[in-house]
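Researcher: I'm preparing a figure for a lab meeting and need a structural model of a single chain. I don't have an experimental structure, so a prediction will have to do for now. The sequence is pasted below. Please return the structure as tokens so I can convert it later.
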Amino acid sequence: MEQLKAADLRHVLVFSDGLAVNGSKLAAGLNGYGVTVTGGLAADGPRFERTWVIGNAPARAGCVVIVGLYGDIAAKTGSAAGWQEFGAERIVTKSAGNVVTEIDNQPALSLYKRYLGELAKDLPGSGLRFPLSIRTNKHEPSIIRTMLAVDEAAQSLTFAGDVPQGSLCKLMRTEISSLIDSAGSAAEQAKLTTDKPTLCLVVTCVGRRLVLGQLTEDELAIVETTLGPNATLAGFYSYGELAPFSDVLHCRLHNQTMTLTTLQDKAPC
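Model: Understood. Here is the structure written out token by token.
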């Protein structure tokens, strides 16, 4: 970010390894430069084996690529989830960074498996269908966290971003209609006001794709319809999305969202 600093820097795009990076700490390092930041963490479907990024070199793991956009460029972002909380609200009683060991003083993995039932045998992949909502107190909005790994010996869960000890948490689930509607909401947030050609970077969580199945195209179709015929879409499925909350400049790590960045040339025709 220091290398990108310039008076005409308008927006920053971030493409990160999805398994070797703590997304919360990555987002924190991107803030404080007076510019909006969006992007995401690369994914490997439900396999959780290897992710990679390309930047001025062959594809490789363990790296982050940051792209600065300068000059007469308009950039707008939108992010929405469409997941609902269920079950009792619990307390994260033991965690360090993005690793949760105990929830309500019980082994975190054991508790999680009880909720998943038969699906527990497919962890960590099946965990994408049941993310965790967390908040540090009852007065702040919840953030969704996606599971990346489990440790049977430690009975712990590893998430795509930090889960602070003492946080309030609930399991989440969704319906197909909610996911598609939330994609439309993200597009409304990101829609630019002019009819110029628009590039839309789409970063959507791989967990959404697993739930949508054959209806995956519907999530993209509602974005295309909302943004209009002058928009061109490109993007990837992720293990974490980077975007501000609403109009706040501060970049945060999100999970299980559809996150959009729209870009237009502001130069006179």
